[in-house]
Amino acid sequence: MKKTVVLALALAFASQSAFADNILSTRVGYNQNGVQNDTVDNKWDVTAPANVQSTVSAQGTDIQRSATATGYFDPTTGTFKGSTQSSLSGATGDRRFIFAESGVNVADKLRVNSTADNAQLKFTVKYDAKFGNPFVSAPRNIFSSSQPIRSNLADFDVSLSQMVDHPGEGEGSGSWAEMIGGQSGRSWHFAEFTQPAHQGGSNIAYTHHESYSGDGRNADLGNAASATDWSGMVSFTLDVPTNKDLDLSVKFALNSFCAQAYLCNSSIDATNSFYLGVTAIGGQLVSNSGYNYTLGAPVPEPESYAMLLAGLGLMGFVARRKARKTV
Length: 327
Description:
Blueprint: E1 3-8, E2 11-13, E3 22-32, E4 35-44, E5 50-59, E6 64-74, E7 79-89, E8 97-113, E9 118-132, E10 150-166, E11 174-193, E12 204-214, E13 219-220, E14 229-241, E15 246-259, E16 263-265, E17 267-273, E18 275-281, E19 284-287, E20 291-293, H1 302-326
Parallel strand pairs: 1-17
Antiparallel strand pairs: 1-7, 2-20, 3-4, 3-8, 5-6, 6-7, 7-16, 8-15, 8-19, 9-14, 9-17, 9-18, 10-11, 10-15, 11-12, 12-13
C-alpha cells in the first residue's frame, strides 16, 4: 500500500546562484539472517528540482518483503514531496523487518539587518497528514518485543542557534553554539505486542501519539490525538541579535516500518504538508542560501509587480473613461 507525503519547506529561492546546503534522501532496507541490507539515494545541495528513489524487494519461501521510498525537492518553491511504502508477510522473528524513509534536511544562516541592536523572528510551521493504519496480523503466541510490529511516523524540527565567544584559557575557551529557540512536532502511529487481557484476547495493542515541544507549543496528547489526521499550525517568535549570522536547522521526515507480522501494511497521505515561514520584525531578513521563507508561496519577480501596477493603471483608466461617458 502506498503512502504519499507532501512536505513543503517554503524556502523559495531568491537566486539560483545562491549557496545551498540541504540533502534530499530516501532509504529502504531489511534484515536478512542478521545482515542489514540498505538501499539509499541522496541528492546534496539541491539548487534545481530533483528526484530520488529507493526500492527493495525480498521474497522467500516463508517471508515476503517490499519497500519503496521516493522524494522530490524543488528549491525554487521550497516544496518536498515524498512517498514511502513498506509491506511484510510471513515474518515470525524479531529480526525480520522492513522499513522505508524519506525526508529533507536544510541548514541555512540567517541575518537580520537593522540599525537597532535586537529584533525578532517569527516562525510559522504548517502541517497536514492523514494516516491509514489497517489491522495487523501477527503470531498469537508472542506477547512482547523490543520493537513495534508496525510504525508510521511523521515529524518536523525547526531550531535557531548562534555562535557565542567564551574568552578564557583551557577547555572553557573558544566559540560555542547557543540555542536561541525552536519547535518540534511529531505524530506516531504504531502497533505492538501486549499480554492478552483474557484467554483468546488480542495480543496486539494499537496506539497513536502526538506531541509538541518548543517555543510555540508544548503538549503530549497520547491517545487523545487523532487516529487519522495530523493537521494544524504552530507559530513562535524569538528575540534575536541583529547584524549577526544565526544558524537555522530544518528537518521534515517520514518513516514506515513493519516487523515480525504475518501481514503488515501502512500508509500516510499528506498533501501540501509541512510549510515553514519566517518573518523579521524590526529589520530585514537575509538568507545566506538565498531562500525566502514564505509558507510555500513563491515570491513575485519585479516584472510581476510591474505588470500588476500596469494592470491597475489600465483598470483605473477604463473606470474614469466610463465615468465620463455617463455624465
